[in-house]
Specification:
With 558 residues, this protein is of the alpha+beta class. The chain has 4 domains: 2-47 and 531-556, no CATH class; 58-216, Alpha-Beta Complex (Sulfite Oxidase, Chain A, domain 2); 221-341 and 458-470, Immunoglobulin-like (Sandwich), CATH 2.60.40; 343-445, Immunoglobulin-like. It is 14% helix and 27% strand. It is built from 9 helices and 33 strands. The protein has a 5-stranded mixed sheet. β1 (2-6) and β2 form a beta hairpin.
Amino acid sequence: MLRFLMGAVNMDLSLGKARENKYRLLPVGPVPLLFFLVLSLFLSLPAVASGTVLEITGDGVSAPVAWTLAELEAMEQYQHVYSGINTYPTKQWYIARGVKLRDLLALAGLKEEATLIRFYSRDGYDVTFTVQEILEDKRYYFPGLKENHPSDGSIPGSPAGAVEVEPIVALASAEGSADPGAMNDKDIPLLVLGQRAVTEQTSTLFVKNLSKIEVLTAELDKWDEPRINVPAGSVLPPGTGLVLENKTSDVDKIHYTTDGSTPTVNSPIFNWSASRWWPLRGDLDQVNAPIVITEDMIQKGEDGREYIVIKARTIGPGKEDSDVVTFIFTLDPEAPDPTREPGGPVTGLSLDRSRLDLPVGGSFQLEALVEPYNAPDTRVTWHSGDTRVATVDNRGLVTVVGPGTAVITAETAEGNFTASCVINGPGEEGEDETAPLEEIPEETADEVPETELEAGEADNALAEEVGEPEEEETADPAVPEGRGQYLAEKKDLAAPSPEGGGEGQGTPAQVQVFELFLAEPLSLPVERRELELPTAIIFFLFLLSGAAKRYLEYAKEL
């Protein structure tokens, strides 16, 4: 064993039967460890200039292909300004130059049966789109994005003058600018795309340091239907505030209408701010504001009764839009406002699925619904009957980790009511069907309780009268519908907007306190760092140079 002793630098260079014939450097002290880490990261960076930077694979292409940066630069380039909004939401400009996505997919032999396109960053981050939404739906640059408010993305800009733009793999770009001189190669390759509506939140879908595009032919899942905070069929007074929600409330946006029309991507958004930002927004109730029943929403039935109709659907990337759900409420000025009355004690608990069949590595988001809907204590804990088979986190996310059968159980903090879901149990007739990965099942929030039979029958008649208009496709961007009263009050709501991301949070009204069960105990971080032979040689040369000596002289002055 050869030992080098140089003041603060103290290490062992072991030449022996190291695993895989590697030299192992065991740094002692923070300074050499820092040198090790910096040098290792530098040597591990991909050779962007000369090596492969982007590949297209998957069963949705006939000729998988890969390119170097030079090869991408040699292709026909497309440059444009893009408008975008993040999930805070904040309005943003981008300018980008690169290769059209459809040109790259054509070179890879995009198949007609392709359904999904997944984009991977070098750090493992990925975003999925349906082929329909990224290649077939028209996307635009909206020069009027910042009209009505320069930054607040919950205040719609103007769709006037929209220019159709192409999704591209950018090789130069600038965020927050429309100046071509500001473009740089900081995040390249970078996926950039336009908006389908002036309110669509696309900035979070831009994939930085793009390394792989995977085209799939898998069956498309659907987003879950929105729910509402008051049971459909209830009798409400004017002025009641209604709240729409879904499982994740992140990139999946709830679009709604109050005039009986079918919601589209141009309809008002309820959950403007994504759940990842909720802990940081003191004005959340003003941004994701309740839908207040006003005179312009009220309709009259043939029997003279007044009612309102709210239609909603979830729209987001990577899945088909949810089915449209219709909520009908009868109005009575003398009726109590259920949103202002405290609920009683917990009377029950249910899960949205009683059985799941998932492969090892598959996951599914279970949802626990506490009864009554307005119970003051909605805390739920989760646990798995066999963590060798399936684990569950503190929000009900089930992950299958091994073969076998497990039972996931949720339990209320008040009353100890429980509900269970069998994971990969033996097949029996009448049980739930196999769940696609990440599928969120449909809800039945619009069913009328049996205790309100007469009101329910009247609502059914109203539903038939209102009807379900057919959804129409529009070739040009439409003017997004807004909440007039709400928008007028937004002038003074210019809240600061963080640029970074955040961890997603569950819906506070449903999940507040949990227990987390792990399949395996977490291991402590290991302080050793194994380096390849070239790294060891470079570090050895560094020691023999005068750099170490100069460092010691510097250290003496501290």
